[in-house]
Amino acid sequence: MILVGVDVGGTFTDCVLHDIATGTTVTHKVPTTPDDPSRGVIEGVVGLCGKAGISRGAITDVRHGTTTATNAVLEYDGAEAGLITTQGFRDVLHIGRHQRPQHYSIRQEVPWQDRPLVKRRHRLTVPERLVPPRGEVLVPLDEDAVREAARQLEASGIRSIAIGFLFAYLNPAHEQRAREIVLEEVPDAFVTTSAEVSPQFREFERFTTLAMNAFIG
To answer: In Å, how far from its chain's centre is CA 187?
Structure first.
């Protein structure tokens, strides 16, 4: 069995091959190709096989990891993203959980407020509401409002759109329908929903994961 591991970093792509039968380990390093990271991976694996003297078809398993997404968030170098959320909850990403290093300071820096993954002007709301414990519909999804929100975001140059509704982890139907509508209005957009990336309760954590997915998407 021949195993290959690939780690795509911001500067280099590191590859390692291990032959379980012989105990042989071979490593290879190539520059990362930011425009298309897959090119660096392919070049690295080809070079790795050349050094090991085996054909690519002999590889049994390939495992892949990357810090590309982490770097994008840390360097604040992601997509200009938009958010469509439940009416009345536009500022969930801003408010957070009221955790502050200094409760009464007006000068402190709160990372998710100073450098938001989705700027406030790109957070739009639509009427809809689900309720626990099973995600029953209290307020039907306003599909016209979703269409208008999608058009507004498109007009602002947004091509990465997050959709996060309250209690969507219990019932993703509204998010799924909103996604369909957004793609009808903005076919080339990257659209992500909270129920697919983080189907858990507590909206701040779920929406933050959602926003991060849109930011690096």
So the answer is: 19
Give the residue among 217, 206, 212 at the shortest CA–CA distance from 85.
Answer: 206
Q: Where are the alpha helices (DSSP H) in the chain?
A: 37-52, 68-74, 92-95, 111-114, 143-155, 173-185, 194-197, 203-216
Report the predicted TM-score, pTM, of the whole model to 2 decimal places.
0.82
* Rounded Cα–Cα distance for residues 161 and 164 (Å): 10
Residue 5: name the closest of 50, 60, 53, 58 by CA. 60
Among the candidates 33, 55, 73, a domain finishes at: 73
Residues 84 and 190 in one domain: yes
193-204 pLDDT, tens digit each: 999 999 999 999
Q: Residue 2 corresponds to which amino acid?
A: I
Quick check: helix, strand or coil at residue 56?
Answer: helix
Looking up tokens 């926003």 gives 211
- Domain range enclosing 173: 78-216
54-104, pLDDT tens digit by residue?
999 999 999 999 988 888 888 888 999 999 999 999 999 988 887 767 777
